[in-house]
Design brief:
The protein is built from three helices and eight strands; from the N terminus they run βαβββαβαβββ. By secondary structure, it is of the alpha+beta class. The chain has a single domain, classed as Roll (2,3-Dihydroxybiphenyl 1,2-Dioxygenase, domain 1), CATH 3.10.180. It has an eight-stranded mixed beta barrel. Strand 2 and strand 3 form a beta hairpin. It starts with 12 loop residues before the first strand and ends with a strand. The relative contact order is 0.19. The model has no long low-confidence stretch (mean pLDDT 87).
């Protein structure tokens, strides 16, 4: 069925994001009741991101479980206003976003803009280490590459209420 909207090509599912009020309690529940885990917890100081067209800052605590190719992310906002706090205020705890990888975020956003879809929140690029590979830490093993991660959140009220997060990873020179 052609509804006149432009189609974009999303990559594989990266993760689902669940907003919670108490991260420690949520990690305990998902671990002991559902058998997910272990979770890796980290605090992110988000500086100068764009939220609903304005520059904002926030601190977010997230716990990530990575049992396979897609993972569960539990998110608790410690301070500041984000799409996560907006969701928590309007709907309470629950599934807030579904994240997909894309090859070229800027190109994908241009295509989406043609259909009237703009980011609700855009984070500045962040440098991270690639996940470790087998053999890492062994003498003579190559150091994992550094990656640049760029992410945006798109409103998606018309398709079930969970936001769509798009993520692009680019390998940085060593």
């Amino acid at each position: 069925m052609d509804n006149g909207l432009q189609k974009v090509k999303l990559g594989r599912l990266s993760h689902i994001g669940i907003v919670v009020r108490d991260l420690d309690k949520a990690v305990e529940h998902y671990s002991s009741v559902l058998g997910l885990g272990p979770f890796t917890t980290q605090v992110y100081d988000l500086k100068s991101f764009i939220y609903r067209g304005k520059t904002a800052s926030a601190r977010v605590r997230a716990a990530i479980n990575n049992p396979g190719t897609a993972f569960v992310e539990l998110v608790q906002v410690l301070e500041g206003e984000t799409v996560h706090t907006e969701f928590l205020r309007q709907k309470g705890e629950g599934l807030q976003h579904v994240a997909f990888l894309v090859r070229n975020l800027d190109e994908t956003l241009r295509e989406l803009a043609g259909s009237g879809i703009e980011p609700a929140m855009r984070l500045p690029p962040m440098t991270i280490d690639a996940p470790p590979s087998s053999g890492e830490g062994q003498p003579g093993a190559a150091r994992p590459p550094r990656l640049q991660l760029t992410e945006v959140y798109l409103d998606s009220e018309t398709i079930g209420g969970a936001m769509i997060q798009l993520m692009e990873y680019r390998q940085l020179p060593l």
